[in-house]
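This part of the workshop introduces the protein records we will be handling. An example says more than a description, so a record of this kind follows:
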Amino acid sequence: MAGRLIAFEGGEACGKSTQAARLAQRLGAVLTREPGGTALGEAVRDLVLHGPSDGFDARAESLLMLAARAQHVSEVVAPALGSGRDVVTDRFSHSTLAYQGYGRGLDLDELTRLCSWAAQGIWPDVVILLDVPAELAWERVGRATDRLEAAGAGFHLRVAEGFAAMAAAAPAGWLVVDGTGTVEEVADRVGASFDRWATRSGGGQPQVAGPASARR
């Protein structure tokens, strides 16, 4: 039996990394992140987050993300799922749709097809979206320290609207969780929401909350 792919999504400083680690420990799952999870992915992460702030074409940014995902899926995600292990990832393909699609304005249908191709057709079985008010997120961030954090309020508003639109389009496969409060309070909400989903879905079916009709 294949494992489940559980993706945490959300804007900057929403607490994804902390909550992904908590849920992975609880489930005994493989914990990973994007961009990252492999040597190539970590190199791409450094380039995307700390590379040139000007002259960085949105398509080039997208292709870097997709290259990191292709290696991540080949090296980490697909083998773990195939061996029956659950995988919890801090970001996956829906971040590309939110950031490079809604945020940068690239065509969502094209990005959805490219995401599916790069990930060997694998999409998350469930997406956990941590919902944090923008003012609280920026209070947590403080001074912007990377390219994406420094992209501007308008960009981050479009990203947040993108995540909300994708969650609304596929409610059975998205769990929108209040990300405010203590780490323990949020972890309790995440755990309860995930347990309800797992019971309801009987293990789950992959959810693609994008404009195209790609499926695992």
About this structure: Residues 205-216 have pLDDT under 50 and may be disordered. The chain has one domain: 5-201. The chain is about 55% helix and 10% strand.
